[in-house]
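We now fix the convention by which a protein and its fold are recorded. The integers have meaning only within a learned vocabulary of local backbone shapes. A record is reproduced here so that you can trace the correspondence yourselves:
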Amino acid sequence: MSGIWPGDTKCVAMLTFDVDGVSSWLNRNPDFVNHPSLMSMAEYGPSVATPRILDMLDAHGIKASFYVPGFVAETHVDMVKEIARRGHEVAHHGYMHEPPSTLSPDEEKSVLERGISILEGITGTAPVGYRSPSWELSEHSLEFLSSLGFKYDTSLMGDDAPYMVDVPGTDKQLVELPIHWLLDDAPNFVYAPVANRLGPMRNPDEVFGTWAAEFEGIYRYGSSFNLTMHPQYIGRPGRLLMLERLIDHIRTFPNVEFMRCQDVAELWVNR
């Protein structure tokens, strides 16, 4: 074992996709349903971009993790089945993209249970991973996740390698697979005037430079590269080509393993 990873592995890379579809916009404002342009931009994610992403991952021999809100899963059952059929992880991302910090404890637990039921009903397997919408956990989230059988969370920013988080009021722990805004496509690409989201729409080459630099630093320290993407943004043709360039760049570094988040969490518990 060299560093924190087993065998010769120097660094782990996780490609993750939040398949929010229309859910994130409708949670912000249900009246957005009356804005066809915004809804069509969002629907591009599950309907057009996700199939392309799945084909791209197959071409590169990579298994990834997909975080799917329950509402999106209900309205795109075949997409969820196809993600699972190709060997990718299907994980929990709320029902209508509700940040737990905005919910009462009863509401939060109900959303978790509803999402579990939907995803398990489609894939035949209960999700073991959770990503909080907007990365905003509540003070009760870890307790609920533990009691409902989740093995890991990926919503916190306390390290750049996996770490264990204590479940309040218990002697249990969950694996935390940390994220960061620096490794999220949304701050770079979101542009939706009707929703007052007037992001910079950065050139993919600029984003490539940011992500490649962060990977190189993470590789230097032998930790984990957890890249958060949204099909409705990263799935635009030019941006998807940039992601393929990033994959190729990462593969020029020796002893890097692309892994699903659930596999990283299991490895971390059993190391």
The first strand starts at residue 11 and ends at 18. The chain has one domain: 11-270. The chain has eleven helices and eleven strands.
